[in-house]
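Q: How would the structure tokens look for this protein?
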Amino acid sequence: MQAARTPDPRSGQPGSREPKPGERNALGAEPSAYLRQHAGNPVHWQPFGDAAFASAASRDVPVFLSIGYAACHWCHVMARESFEDQATADYLNGHFVAVKVDREERPDVDAVYMAATQAISGEGGWPMSVFLTPEGRAFHAGTYFPPRPMPGRPSFRQVLEAVHEAWAERRGAVEENARSLAQNMGQVQLAAVVDVSRPPEPLDAGLLPAAVRSLARSEDPDGGGFGTAPKFPPSAVLEFLVRHAAVPSDTAEEAREMAGRTLAAMARSALFDQLDGGFARYSVTRDWSVPHFEKMLYDNAQLLRVYVHWIRLGGTAGFPATEAADVAARTADWMLRALGLPDGGLASSLDADTVVDGEHHEGASYLWTPGELERVLGADDAAAVAWMMNVGARGTVSELGSPLHPGRALDGDEARLWLDVMPRLREARSRRPQPARDEKVVAGWNGLAVAALAEAGAVLDRPDLMAAAGGIAGYLERVHWRPDAVKPASGELVRVSHAGAARGIGGLLEDYAFCAEGFLALYSATGSPRWYMLAEAVIQAACTRFVDGGHLADSAGESAQVVNAQGGKPGLDFFDDATPSGAAAFSGALLSYAALSGSGEHRTMAGNILLLLPPLATRAPRVAGWLLATAQAALSGPLEAAVVGPVGPERDALHRALLLSPSPGLVVAAGEAEAADGGKPAEVPLLRQRPAGPGGAPLVYVCRGMVCDRPVATVAAALERVSSARR
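A: Here is the predicted structure in token form.
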């Protein structure tokens, strides 16, 4: 139904006039796939912005804020049950200004109102349903509300009526509660203040083994991972454990075994798409056997990098590096095949649902029954595959069937059978309806992918992956980065692009940090100074944008309503969520940049961010994985390796050997040696005044804080220097 023909719920008369702004659904022209999913709702949705809140103020009604994302299954459910219902929409339109937010476009909005939702309701998740004053302060919140009451959960219509009654009859109490919540959130933000300008303090190295022991107490050693259901891939924690295992200590072996159990369990489970590659968002069961089927770029980029680092570490008997290499290669290939866009970026996600005959079905593309297997494979192979891949007569997800997963390592005969049947099953699955793709490009998540693909290309000896990383980095530079015309070394990063055009808010701290990390990883892998220079510009811009009076913030105050909701204080969330926190990621990028540039200022900034770690290391290490991983790199370094000499097989061999080192504090630079006649200095400071050997022979300089040992000329000698420094 078109909004212009919707009866006016306040007058009860048919609306024959042209509707005013705010009296129609305004999402049709939005580039966000999630917002456009709601463009046909009878709800008069508005995008988040000053105009929507001004409308609420002029009408003297609250704002109903609904936050979700395109791949979210329960977002689709609530839309179908409530937002597509005309009676519900009429009530909502008459008593509220309805605002839709794509949390992937506006994580700053999502973060502050998620904190409010958790404070108010004790729960969090998506779809998120928050009621706000016209100034943006939250006063009531929840997540999914059903169309009819359920035990312990009111219906959405009941919630709307109760909120409207409170607003109309108890306005003073509502607004006071909203102010009090905002002030309390502001106090939390004050507790998270990071002064990046103060003199550095030493980090207690004992925090890291203590964190390993704390993680061991929450590990599920049988199922892998941590805690119970639902289980999310603990990517940042795994990165810390892999790094910790690379440095000799009393807890190194414990960290290695813990990481190996989780990596193996996920790789052999339904979380990993056994046919096409790539990981789902999370599992609703403890043993990873029933995934929530949305596939996110950020999960797969992080997990690809962790599996690549596991390969460098050498694996374990329970999860060998060869098996990890297969998982990594298939994940990288899936990312590029399923999420790659024609103009060079990577799309955000694939939906959890598949639309079959007009109905949404979660995971429908991925589910199998014994009968379907038999139709594709024949009776004998189908029976063997059904037993091997846990497909029974009763579907584990729905009547549509079960996902394919062995839940264990396959033996020789099973592995051969699986390799034989995979092409037939993959071809049959390709003929099914496929999940929708959210084609927005998020700068930070593409930065994560650049780092993962660059390192995967080096470790797996896949030049195509290295080239893909370069293509994505080039897209970010071309579309998302806006260099400053006056100061070319600085500029602005835009968070989101659609169809090759950047638009919307500027990047958040996490975007700058992830992109800088990706460009630095790509520089180390390729030796191209272009990427070092771009990373330097991004880091300098981040310091200008997010550091004020020495204090670090996640955003530059993009919306007054967000600032109001957290008591007028700048926000800094240092807990990891689905991705590392912006603060932790920025610390890691600063640390790598300082190692390549020799900048004491940036190393001090990184160290001061790491001072967030002591309260978290033993009490909450599962939300501090990237801080722990960065602290491991900081305590193992700064360790730098400069490979100098002409391009050729000898330099390439030295360069690749260093890229294969598992040392967590090692940063690698490669390039031509500087001319002896005092010509133009190398663009990367680590390479400056590092001459090649006799006749221009390539050499490796292993350094700490830019102070280098005598150079060496062989792979064995270079690795021994790195190993000795790591010990």
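The first strand starts at residue 46 and ends at 47.

The first helix runs from residue 33 to 37.

Upvote if useful.
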